[in-house]
Structures are given as structure tokens and as C-alpha cells.
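Give me the fold.
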Amino acid sequence: MPAEALPPAPPERIFIGRDAELAQLIDLARSGLTSGLFIVVRGEVGIGKSALIDAAVAQAPASRTVLRGAADAMDRRRAYGMLLDALAPLLTEQDRRMAAEQNEHVAGERLLSAIDSSTREPTVLVLDDLHWADAASLRLLTRLSRSLAHLPLAIVASLRTQASHEVAPELDHLLGVLDEKDLLRAVELAPLPQPTCDAITERLTGARVDATLRRYVAAAGGNPLFLTEMVRALLRDGAVTVGPHGAVLRRIPADPSPSLAMVIMRHLSHLDLATRELLTTAALLGTRFSVAHLRLVADRPMGELAPLLRQAYAAGFLAEIDDDTLGFRHELIQNVLLHDVPTAVRAQLHRDVALTLDSAGVPAATVAGHVLRAPTLGEDLPWLLDLAQRTAAAAPVTAAELWERVASETDASDPQHVAAVAGLARTALSGGRARAAEKLAASALAHLRGAESGMPLRGIELRSLLLQNRHAETLQQAREYAASPSLPAAERAAHLVFGGWPALLLGDPETALGLADEGIALAAQSGNTAAEITGLTLQGLIVNGRGDLDDAVRLLTRAVDLAEQHPSVAAIEAFPHACLAVALADVERHDEATAMLARSIEICERFGFRTGILTTRTLAAHARSHSGNLADIATELEAHAALLDAMDVRLDPPVRGLRAWVVALQRGPDAARAAAADIDPSQSRKAWRWRGSSWVWLGHSQLARARGDAAATRETMWRGWEDLHGAGLLMDCAEIALDVIELWRGQPGRCDEVVVAMDALAARNPRITHLQAAALAVRGVAESRADALIDAAQLLAATPRRLDHARVAELAALALPARDDRARVLAEGSLHSYAEVGADHEARRAASSFRRAGISVRVAARVRPSSGWEALTRTEERIARHVATGETNLEIAQELFISRRTVETHVSNILTKLGLRSRTELAVHFAHRLDARAARTSADQ
């Protein structure tokens, strides 16, 4: 309390009889400080969970970092409330403002950064009353479980024993994930045995416990809180006094109190009326409450409150949490206080509290927590809508509850009902729940009055349909909306450009371009910058797929510039940054592409745009498919898959195809069977008909390759060529051209078509080395010209496209006489490039081909081992070095232009390959490696 110091605290609860449980908890915590563990201390109310944790923490070394926070039933609607409390010592005022104002994703990333920073050293994180934790905290802890085993972090949580139906779904999921990963440990607290209860009673009374007193306290059932409060009540009432030799002089009531609540009520009755009333007001604020908030709600100066708070503190009802926060010593005290207030009165009091706090500028999520416990009055509906809007970014679950309350209290035709349903639809869409968003938007649109007010809803409906791959419906609906004469020009522009997207995905780029052109012109006239960005991004994708790469970069750069000048969710809904990254990789500006991917993740996270994050993961894998290590591409795909867990956005066919192709290059077609079996090109065409379609055919072909069916492989890849070439997808044609030309070597008609197409693509892009090399390579295979293949391999050797170089160098080596020394050099270069990207199966296959051809290579095919330092990819090596120097995942992500989630996956892979359990062990391993290298260097000198 800032106004006056509190009197000395009342005697603490006596802690005895838990030696075994204390030793168990301390041992588990020590294990967690080596490689992370999540430890729950479980038991009934008042059984001593917090006391046990207190005792364990008290035995921790003074230098040990211990962070502690608690959940509160009143605070469950405040996103990350529990973790913000626990990590408060690590957070700045700006961090706290961000958590209250920014979207849930941004706040979560900051909290993960705080955890990263704290775990540079072994850390204990204590979470009291996990059963009251907010959903956002539980989701973040679930995500943390992916890397917990590698952190020197012991998470210790108290958890009340509950029936299964009482456990929150997010908590149930967290505990299930932890158990599955073997990271969950439990310390179960049973009732105390009678001898321990006797010892506690003797400590409290100073007297020997006789049979009468023992029978009385046995009613506590071994619950130490109940026992302590019962005995203190006897002492307070004068029912037990102690004689000169320790004998009990008693006037014990005939029957003990039937419950702990009754004991607490009797204890409260000894307080002054004003103090009890103040405690009731405090109970409305929660188990923990701000003194400043209490002063506001009580509407009394601090000078009047201080004596009352001192009395409550001295009586053992309150505890000091920090400079501005007090809390009830046990939530049962709060429950008893509130139980004494009639339900209807309590609900109205919550409304009064909410009005007071809102007028004082308290964060909207805190205000909403009280509003949702109050009756909904008609006059309050605009207020609820305003609160929902203010909480939508930082606490979307709370916003949804407010919108649901408004929707349930209004008729479907009421504009307030429409506004509430629109909010629910927007929240569902941003969270990736496309089907729910579509249903909600359609419901609201059915009762909409006025064209202008329906603009957000129509946009939500269209995006929801598109995300479900219902492209024909999306196109038809967008056209109908755009044709409506009553729509404002800005909305017509939005529907026109958006209609181009399903047209493109249905394989009709001309219609898509027409809609984009018309929409961009109208958007520029009406000032709809977001629609202009969407149209420019669409144009850029179309010309990129056709092979006009410089034009694609120009259009997409313009889209990104506008998005940076006018940042909003609407401005990035077409993913301009990620699309530009792919175009930059195509024109061999790889560093810029990497930076643009990082910017795409950053801006999507800033706005909580989960679908944008998901799409960026897909396009990142695409952009790195020829220049990156296959293990790194697989990591991007893993991060993509992890994001899909809570979303009903469908997995794009190119992603499935790329996954199968990567596995085949790493481990062979047989290993790719499972992934390839999930790919059906005829069905994929209904969902995706643009850039990336080549991966569908490459992935699908692995089934025939695994069977060793050369004829089926040839036919599959030719069907793919016809599909892509017929659609004008020249950049996708380039992806499969070498496969097709090899399979159909000696078939002039088909080979000529491939050669002509690649020559045309190279001619359009004379400065793009990999396209010049592709044209030379397909001509070299078709015409059996070793010189063309050698020239292509030399061109690719100077680019980062290692996989392409490996493939073309292999073909060039095999096209030369075995005794030609150039064949050996090319073969060795091919094997080196295959190894560099982690294409282990391809390296073995190529080495076998060289042996059969009689090409003698001086170095064996280097297949990356499965464990040890040599098993690490280049990216993993870089990340391992950063981890060893103590950098956090966020710091590594920012330096390498990748996401934190990707870093988490890499760190997990690194530790697995090195046989280590934690980042600390990695730092030690790395130091020993440096020492050994220094010793070898010294010996050599």
C-alpha cells in the first residue's frame, strides 16, 4: 500500500508434514533447471499447494531467478493476464501498454521473448491457480512446450483437483501436449494424517491435544487451511485456553463448524462493519486487486481506506502483492464475501464497477470482465459494442463474448445485432476459421439494411469462401456485388480486384487481369488504397507466373510500397510482401527476398493476421526451394503445418506437393509415398491453378517413381507439362522442364516443345542466369550436346541455386566420355552441391550413375550423417553458434531474417542431432568444440 505501511503480517500458516512432497518437488525442479519440465502441484482447496511451493522456493539459492504470477477468476478474460503477472519484472511499461492495446499475437511474441531472456540462466516460473488461467496464457504455454525440453526452465504450477468436465479445454489441451512430450510431472497432495494435524494444533494452541480436541479438529479432514482456521477461531472466541502445564482449559462448542466457509464467516464477523463492506467491494475486483482501482470503486480518499485495510491485513484476510496490489490470502475468503451478496445485487454492482473503471480509463479488457458479469440493459448495448471494438485486438475472446451478448439481446434485423455478428465474423476470419466466418457473415448480410454498411461483411464472406477453395462461388458472388449500382465506388473497386483472385485460381488469368485492371483504376479514383494494393499484387502474380519477371518485381514493389505507406490488415490481405519475395528470388536477388519474407512475417504478426503468416510460410519454402538446404525448407513446411492446428484453412495443393518432393530428394521416392498419396492433380486443379502448380505434379509423380514404373512416371510428368504449358505457367514449366526432357529423351516432338518454351522464357529474361541455364540444359539433353550442358552447369555454379547446379552438372558429366577429366570435375561438383543442400538420396543415386558410367571421382558422395556436428545444415550451424553465445530465439530470428517459430524448430533439430537436452548443454558442447579446434591448431603450429 503506497499511503501507509501495513502492520506486521499475521502468523503464517504452519507448514509441517510434507517432507516427502517437498523433497519430490525440489528434485523435479532441479531436473527442470537442466532440461525443462512442467510440474503441477495438485490437490483440493486449502490442501497446501501454495505453501508447498513457497517452501520449495525458499530453499532455492539466492542467485536463482524465480518468477511468479497467479491467475484469478475475475481476470480470465484479460489475455495473458497470468503470464503478464509472472513476467512483470522483465517487462517495460511499453510492453504492458502493448499487451493492452496490440493484438494477441504481438503480445504473445513479446512474452516469449521475455521467457527467452530469462532462460539465459536457469529459471523457475511459478504459476499459482493454473485452473483460473486465461486462454491466451494457456495457448502460449502450449506453444512453449515445443521448446521447453531444451530450456533451463522449471515451470511449477498449482492446480486444484477438478472433475474432467470442469477443466477448461485449453488447459486440458496443454496438459495433454505436455504429457505426450513427457514433460509433465505431478506432485499430489493428499489430506494430512491425524498425527500431523495434532502437531499443527499443538503449535497453534501451545497445548497438548487431548481426545476431545482431537475429535473436534478431525472434522477438518486433514485439510490444513480448514484446520488452521478452525483452531484460530476457537482461540479467537476464547474457547481454548492453556493451563500452566500445557493442559487445555476449554469451552469448546458441542459441534465443530460444518465447513471452512462457515469458519471464515465467523472470522469476518469480528471485523468492523466498514471493513467488511470494503472487503466486499474489493472482492468484486478479484482475488488480487489494484489499490488504485479499489479507491476509485469505493469512491473514498486513501486516508479513509488505509485504517480499514490495516485491520483486514492484521486479521489475516489480505496480503501485499506489490506496491499497488493487494490480494486475499485465499480465494475462499473472496468467495465467502461475495456469497453473502444476493446474486442480482452482485451483478448490478459489477455494472457499477465497470462504469467507474471505464470512465477512469482502465483498460477495456478489465472493464469488460465486469460488464460480462452484469445484466445486459438495452441502454448498455452501444457501450458493449464499443468495448468489443476496443478489446478486439488485445483480447479477441473477450470481444467475442461481448458481441455474442449483444447478438443474443437484439433482433436479427437490429443494426446493433448486425454489427455484433460482423465483429464475430471478422474475429473468426482473422483466426483462420473460414467456415464459421462465412456462416456469420451470411447471417448478418441477410438482415442488412443499406448497401454501404455491408462493405466489411461482404468482404469477410468473399475471403471466407476463397479460403475454403470455393473459387467459383467466390467469383460469382464478387461479380454480383461489383455489379450492384447502389454500391459506393470504393467498395465496387474492392469487389472487382478481389474477384480476380478466384478467377486466377480457376485457371482464367485473362479474366483475372481484366478485373484487376478495372478495379485498380476505380480504386485510385475512389481512394481505396487497400483495393489498389490487392489489384497490383494480383497483376504481379500473373505476370510473374507467365515469366515476365521484371514487370512482376515492378508491380509487386509498388504494392509493397503502398502497403508500407498505408499499413492495415486490408493492405496486407493479398500478401504483397511474401509475393514480392518469391519474385525477387526468381530474379536472383536472394538477400532481398529473405529480408522481404522476414518483413512479411513481422507485419502479419503486428496485425495478428494468421492467414498471412501461414501464406508467408508457404511462399518462404517456395522462394528457397532451389537455393536453400532441403532441411531448412522442411522446417518452413513444419512451421506452416503447426499453424494449421487451430485453423480450418485448407492446405494448398502446392504445399503437399513440395513436401513430397523434398522428402524424395532427401530420402527417396519410397519415403515420399505417404505425402504423395495425398495429392490428386485433377482435384488440385479445382483449388489451385497458378504459380506452384508444378509442385503438385512433381509430388504426385513420386508414387510412380517409388514403384519403379518409368512409363507411368513419363506419362504423369507429360500430363503435368501439358497442364502447365496450356495455362501459360512458364515459370512452373521451368520447374519440371528438365524432368520432362530427361524422361522423353529421343522423342523429338515433345522435346522440341519443351526446348522452344524454355528458349522463349530465357529470351524474355536475358539477365536471369538460372533461366539461361535452364534453356541451355534442356537443349543439351534434347540434342545430346555436352557443350550446352557444360555451359549451363558453369552458369549455375556462380548462383546460389545449388540443387539446379547439382542436377545439370550430373547430366553434363554423364554426357562426356568417362575418361574426359571434365567429367570427373563435373561429377565431383554435382556430388558436392547435392550434399550441400541435403539431397542425400540424389547424391547416392548420382554416385551410382557415375560408377556405372565409369567416371572415377576422387571424393565419395558426401551423404550428411544423421547425428553429430557434421549432421547440421549450414543454417543449423549458424543457429547453433548463436544459441551457444546466449542469444534468444527472437534475436536469432531477427538476425537471420526468419521467424521465431522456425528458429524453435531448428533448435529442436540441432539438439536431437547432437544428442543434447538443452541450450545450456549446447553452449558447453560448442565451447569444447572450440577448445579442441584451438588445441589442434596449436599442435599443428
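Confidence is low (pLDDT under 50) at residues 1-10.
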